[in-house]
Amino acid sequence: MCYARNSLAKFRKPHHQKICLQRDGILLITATHENGLRGKAGPIGPAGEKGDQGETGKKGPIGPGGDKGDVGPIGLPGPKGDRGNQGDRGAPGICRCGSIVLKSAFSVGITTSYPEERLPIVFNKVLFNEGEHYNPSTGKFICAFPGIYYFSYDITLANKHLAIGLVHNGQFKIKTFDANTGNHDVASGSTVIYLQPEDEVWLEIFFTDQNGLFSDPSWADSLFSGFLLYVDTDYLDSLSEEDEL
Ligand SMILES: [Ca+2]
């Protein structure tokens, strides 16, 4: 009896059995033998070649935390915070009102006679005009600084009566009348007024044909004058505060 194998094989069979040696199905040797004593085991063969790399093992457990890192760089500026509480009241300031000198003064004459009634009389001859607040083209004084002002007029008249008055923002403040008695006369008036900036003051004939204002350079002048007596103190304080800012 033989046992077929695809590779070289050698079989040891029981006593008096046939020994078959065959390769790839081809019988090479057949023999019979008798049982001998079992030999000793041979020496351990040399180490085999290194095997292929095995599959990746399972993921190990998470290791312990590392050391604390270094402090990072300074970040970008944050958004603007809310408005803080109002601070304590400051110490009283030092008034420097005395260093502020406000000037406003004028005195003007006229070179024509018999002005038109109910219109601003244009005093075109400027004798003095500090601050240029009087306009010799319109006859109007325009207030620049709030405060108390003094105005006066001395008007020479001839040949006609004179009914003249001082107007503040379109309203007569005072009126003066002088009758013509055949000679030259002088009618005068004066008053004190509180003015706001942009207020207007002028002289005006208030009655028809009673415009006897007479101009003669060789005899006499007719004059209209005014000046700032003192400025409004509240206005001065506001200027002082602005100056400190
Ligand atoms: Ca008179």
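^ calcium ion complex. The pocket of calcium ion is lined by residues 178-179, 181, 185 (CB under 6 Å). Confidence is low (pLDDT under 50) at residues 1-16.
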